[in-house]
């Protein structure tokens, strides 16, 4: 909840003329994604203990060596995906808004500011939703 609120307020700072969204810098979305990664891995270990590592092995024992590699790459790709999605969308939104403010200073940029606000809410929602999906996968019980 706090991470989502931080992302939303960071995204909305780009609406203020002269300001840039902190999430339009590469390090801020990476830090948020790493926090989400550490959180859902920690919750997975807290929920299942060391048995959480069986999640990485897959269902067939003789393919476990391959499944471990695939799962590690998959979990690291989640961090990359969360980072790039948030960074690229906020950077592009700031850039488009700045370009339209410099070309046409009255009227038209207001529409792009509204679009930027919508994109800010949408990107926050997507980040929090994906983190929740990753968390539910980490604490899921097999039947």
Word description of this protein:
The chain is mainly α. The protein contains 4 helices and no strands. The longest helix is centred in the middle third of the chain and has 40 residues. The chain is elongated.
Topology summary:
Layout: H1 2-12, H2 27-48, H3 64-103, H4 108-138
Helix pairs in contact: 1-4, 2-3, 2-4, 3-4
Summarize the structure.
With 143 residues, this protein is mostly helical. 73% of the residues lie in helices and 0% in strands.
Number of discrete helical segments? 4
Number of strands: 0
The general outline is elongated
Distance between the termini: 29 Å
Structural class determined from secondary elements: mainly alpha
Q: Percent of residues in helical segments?
A: over 70%
Binned strand content:
under 5%
Order of helices and strands: HHHH
Main β-sheet: number of strands, strand sense, barrel status?
none
The overall pLDDT average reads: 85
Task: From the alpha carbons, calculate the radius of gyration and give it in angstroms.
Answer: 19 Å
Low-confidence stretches: none
Main features:
0% strand; 143 residues; 4 helices; elongated
